[in-house]
Design a protein that fits this description.
The chain has three domains: 166 residues, Immunoglobulin-like (Sandwich), CATH 2.60.40.3650; 105 residues, Zincin-like (2-Layer Sandwich), CATH 3.30.2010; 111 residues, Neutral Protease Domain 2 (Neutral Protease, domain 2), CATH 1.10.390. The protein has 448 residues and is an alpha+beta fold. The two termini are 46 Å apart. The chain has 14 helices and 20 strands. Bound molecules: zinc ion. The site of zinc ion (ZN) has 5 residues, from loops.
Length: 448
């Protein structure tokens, strides 16, 4: 055997062992809520397939998809411990503000910690006597190098609580799976006294199941009535694209939290949305119609943002603020179609619709910020304005015009121009964008 063959063989062995390590990597999470009165959860994250001798770099996310400011989730993680597969205590060090390094493992590290959270919206975590509302980056650590590892989550579900999530169900009602870490982090989960209502839709050979999952103080009949309205909105959006988004694993879940102590928000995900409001209620038809506002906006994102996706935010980097120059399109055009679909479904009058788009036009025309920046430039400011808090004031009255508003006016203007000059409409434009940029998803993005 020549030396070169030997070295080629040894290279082969190294390549195979690193491929094997990749393929045997997995992450198994477990969460329980023994101290929910104090807003505390207990998490165990078991990382399997760590290369021998390697330092396991465990981190909390610094950002969350769809919210552009930094979040500092690690501030609410404490009592971090690690053991190996035989239960021997491992050394845990704190190399930076957002994470922990674990050494001395035997290929497996079981990292346990407590996590605290008391805010329900699209970004954070709330654990209390009434529910556990989990945005995954606010709740679960991840490890560098485990991006492609399959994930399981076992939830110790308190009595009479149910689980609403886009995570893949298993035959065990407390166990869920995700094909990889990006997908897991994109799967917010509500555990509580949730009421479900669902329907199926079939278009172009795609069968989609829609679930409305509501945590509220009302009745199942109210949820069913709201779901029937939501279905009409879904059908209007579907008609724009003449196609369903094509959900991973075939299901989309509207996760709705209408209880008095939550913060108002809406957050898009690939196969679900979080809708939270302390003022919304499903108690009568007028309020149910109002409660379609955020739902309509978020659902349009299933196409525009989640699948017609800015390359700036894909894959999402959980260790920094993610900036996209395209939010004027992703949020702005969505802001136009939210009320438009409600108008088409019969839930807004012409006057109400025109008040919405007219208000956006007036705000845009009167804003001094247009002298300083373009819609692209406004989009790039998102990490400073979307959920951000600073001690010093920002000159935003002068320098920032929301990309939601300006983008909505760009959409309105384009729609009016296509209609009046070319006998076309923005619907056809969106359909063309969908066919070119969204319909065909890469396997990395659409794992099912
Ligand atoms: Zn949005």
């Amino acid at each position: 055997m020549t030396k070169s063959i030997l070295s080629a063989l040894s290279l082969c062995v190294i390549a195979i062992s690193s491929t094997q390590a990749q393929s045997t990597r997995r992450v198994d999470y477990q969460i329980s809520f023994p101290n929910r009165a104090q807003h505390e959860g207990r998490v165990t994250a078991t990382f399997t397939g760590i290369p021998r001798g390697a330092t396991l770099q465990v981190r909390m996310a610094q950002s969350s998809p769809g919210r552009y400011a930094l979040t500092g989730f690690a501030k609410n993680v404490y009592d971090v411990l690690a053991v190996d597969s035989r239960g021997r205590t491992l050394s845990v060090t704190k190399p930076d503000v957002n994470g922990w390094n674990v050494i001395g493992h035997d290929g497996v590290a079981k990292v346990s910690y407590k996590v605290w959270g008391d805010r329900t919206d699209g970004t954070f975590l709330q654990i209390d006597h009434a529910h556990a509302h989990m945005n995954m980056p606010a709740t679960f650590v991840f490890a560098r190098g485990f991006d492609n590892a399959p994930v399981t989550l076992r939830i110790d579900v308190p009595e009479n609580w149910k689980v609403a999530t886009q995570l893949v169900p298993t035959s065990d009602s407390s166990m869920f799976t995700a094909p990889n870490m990006q997908w897991f982090m994109d799967s917010p989960t509500e555990v509580g006294p949730v009421m479900f209502s669902s329907w199926t839709q079939s278009i172009n050979g795609k069968s989609s199941t829609y679930r409305v999952a509501v945590h509220h103080l009302g009745t199942q009949a109210e949820v069913d009535s709201y779901a029937a309205m939501a279905r009409k909105v879904v059908d209007e959006h579907t008609a724009v694209f003449d196609d369903a988004p094509g959900f991973d694993f075939g299901t989309y879940t509207f996760i709705v939290d209408f209880v008095p102590w939550v913060n108002g928000d809406g957050m898009e995900h690939r196969n679900s949305t979080i809708i939270t409001s302390s003022r919304s209620s499903l108690a009568d038809s007028v309020r149910r119609i109002r409660a379609l506002s955020t739902l309509s906006h978020e659902f349009f994102h299933a196409w525009n943002m989640e699948r017609i996706r800015s390359r700036d935010i894909e894959p999402f980097d959980f260790e920094r603020a993610n900036m996209s120059a395209d939010l004027w399109f992703g949020e702005g055009f969505t802001n136009y179609y939210g009320p438009l679909a409600r108008r088409r479904a019969g839930f807004l009058t012409d006057d109400e619709f025109l008040a919405d788009v007219g208000g956006a036009a007036i705000n845009t025309i009167n804003s001094p910020a247009r002298q300083h920046n373009s819609p692209v430039g406004m989009s790039a400011m998102a990490p400073f304005v979307d959920g951000a808090a600073f001690l010093d004031p920002m000159n935003s009255q002068e320098t920032h015009l929301s990309y939601y508003i300006w983008g909505e006016v760009v959409a309105l203007s384009l729609d009016l121009m296509l209609r009046t000059k070319y006998d076309l409409s923005l619907d056809g434009y969106m359909r063309a964008v969908w066919k070119k940029f969204g319909k065909k998803q890469t396997p990395a993005l659409a794992p099912a």
